[in-house]
Amino acid sequence: MTNPRDLPVDIFLISTGSSEPIYRQMVEQLRRQILGGKICAGDAMPSVRDVASTLGVNPMTVSKAYSLLESDGWLARRRGMGMIVAQRESQFEQAESRLQLIRPSLEQVALESQQLKLAPDEVLNLFSQILKIENEDAVLRE
User: Fold this and answer.
1) Higher confidence at residue 139 or residue 134?
2) Residues 6 or more apart from 26 whose CB is under 8 A from it?
3) What is the mean pLDDT of the chain?
4) Quick one: which of 15, 58, 80, 101 is 20 to 30 A from 110 by CA?
5) pLDDT tens profile 90-133
6) How far is it, in rounded angstroms, from Cα 138 to Cα 7?
7) Cβ contact 52:45 at 8 Å
8) pLDDT value for 103
9) What single-letter DSSP state applies at residue 46?
10) Where would I find the beta strands (DSSP E) of 11-88?
11) Residues with Cβ < 8 Å from 117, sequence gap 6 or more?
């Protein structure tokens, strides 16, 4: 496990043109970063005020995101010190959680594929190619 750190306010990238509410964007982004290992248990979350100011959103929006994350067990409150990333469950459950996070995107692709009357094999081949390219790029970045 890495040493806990103070997270920067720019851990969130908000799309104001999205139909997804800002607080929901924040929740999903933080979940992905935790499950992907970019953010670790014990890391200190930036303050609600700092995040709201940086993103140009209402502090209540940030507070709502943090509260949802806390109630779902992703964040924990430190008395008098703010929020930290909570210790999560086993690796098996984390892998299942990561899959559940991409499910809505895959369902959308499946729907669009059906609407375009694309053969499932063609879509799966394209997806495999994209995954290979992304994996190769990730290896080159390391």
Assistant:
1) 134
2) 12, 14, 61, 62, 65
3) 85
4) 15
5) 555 566 777 777 788 888 888 889 998 999 999 999 988 888 87
6) 23
7) no
8) 80
9) P
10) 75-78, 82-85
11) none
